[in-house]
Each structure stands twice: as structure tokens, then as C-alpha cells.
Amino acid sequence: MHDPLPDWVPHRRRQIGLQIRDARRAAGLSQLALGERINRDHKTISRWENALTAPDLTDLLLIADALDVPLADLVR
């Protein structure tokens, strides 16, 4: 059984999702197009942007590369 997450974790997850969404939109890409660039389903992109799930470090690196933004910009 897992301990409940601290309250700040869901908040940070939402912030990261918004950063991904904003960077994707600034790059002029749809969720589908970003998903194709990083070999992930567009539904996965949607779940990240809506903070239903969180991307792992590898996914964050792929997103940063695909959007040509520093990794720090996605997790700030």
C-alpha cells in the first residue's frame, strides 16, 4: 500500500502539464503531432497536460528535445 502523496505533488504535476501544453502550443504542434515526434499516443500527451498522469524523466527529455526547449522550462 502506498502512502498518500504530499499536497504539493498534484499541484506541481498540474504546473508541469501546463508547461508542456504551453511549450507545445508555442511550437505550433497538436498533441497528435507531439506524440508522433516522441513516439507516444496523443492520449498520453493529453493525460500529461491535464495532470492525470506524469511523464517520466525519459519522456520529459524527449518532449524538451522535440519542442526545442530546455528541460528546466518544462519543470520550473
From TrEMBL:
CDD domains: HTH_XRE
Coiled coil (residue ranges): none
Leader sequence residues: none
InterPro entries (UniProt xref): Cro/C1-type_HTH, Lambda_DNA-bd_dom_sf
Domain of life according to the entry: Bacteria
Pfam families: HTH_3
Positions of the HTH cro/C1-type domain: 20-74
Protein name: HTH cro/C1-type domain-containing protein
